[in-house]
Design a protein that fits this description.
2 domains, alpha/beta
């Protein structure tokens, strides 16, 4: 880690306590360690990130991060999303050229994915945002509405994100779709250019976003280009308590 006071690449981990589906999720214990501390530990392993901070709206999370020696900022509880929390904290770091948003419920994120994400944005100067995708290999994943799918162009720029499998494979049984087309799931990491992050934080919800409940569609409707990096590494997000039981990681 270098340039922690004036980072060029800043990672922000938004973490809120009041999740509807899993209250207190960032402080849930996974194999003796809190979820948020695991995320922080993984991001710190990145070869390219200069500084890592947590953005929260809850004193319990704030105190927990401080106690473990991490950098944490208290943000307005009225902010509607993790992206808004990232933007609020990023405004305090004017030297940061790239802001990496790593969700606080991704305890199995790999540092190599963060490095790939950052490199994807750095090598595409005309693109404002980068994110990751992974090829889908299981039918259950393809038809799970909680798994966001993405289609992209030959230049690996996003065309559309959806909770529905995209594209539709005409003339084939749904059970056979994976044999006839490559489908990709979206991995919810983002790298933003500093000015872009401030811009999107000021945007109002859009029609496509409202329909799918996916904020990246708001950005795309405004013509903001999103580059896609392809990873072969798996990540496992924790959405509800049952996910921890299913994965046997409590």
């Amino acid at each position: 880690m270098v340039n922690e006071n004036n980072p060029r690449i800043l990672a922000v981990i938004p973490a809120r306590f009041g999740s509807t589906r899993f209250p207190g999720k960032p402080l849930a214990i996974i194999q003796g360690q809190s979820m948020i501390s695991r995320v922080l530990e993984q991001v710190r392993k990145s070869k390219v990130v200069d500084a890592v901070v947590v953005a929260t709206d809850d004193a319990r999370i704030y105190d927990h991060i401080q106690a473990m020696g991490g950098t944490v900022f208290m943000t307005d509880s009225d902010l509607p999303s993790g992206t808004d929390r990232c933007a609020a904290v990023a405004s305090l770091f004017p030297t940061a050229e790239i802001i990496v948003n790593v969700q606080g419920d991704e305890p199995f994120i790999q540092p190599e994915q963060i490095d790939l994400l950052t490199e994807t944005l750095r090598t595409k100067p005309n693109v404002q945002i980068a994110t990751l995708a992974k090829k889908i290999t299981q039918e259950e994943t393809l038809f799970n509405n909680n798994v966001v799918k993405v289609v992209f162009s030959e230049k690996r720029e996003a065309i559309y994100f959806s909770r529905h499998p995209i594209p539709f494979v005409r003339g084939q049984e749904t059970k056979d779709w994976l044999q006839y087309h490559d489908f990709f799931k979206h991995i919810g990491l983002y790298a933003f250019r500093h000015d872009t992050l401030q811009t999107i934080a000021a945007l109002k919800p859009s029609l496509l976003e409202t329909a799918e409940s996916l904020e990246q569609l708001r950005w795309m409707e405004k013509g903001i280009r999103i580059a896609i990096g392809i990873t072969e590494l798996e990540t496992i997000g924790i959405d509800v308590p049952d996910d921890m039981l299913r994965l046997n990681i409590g």
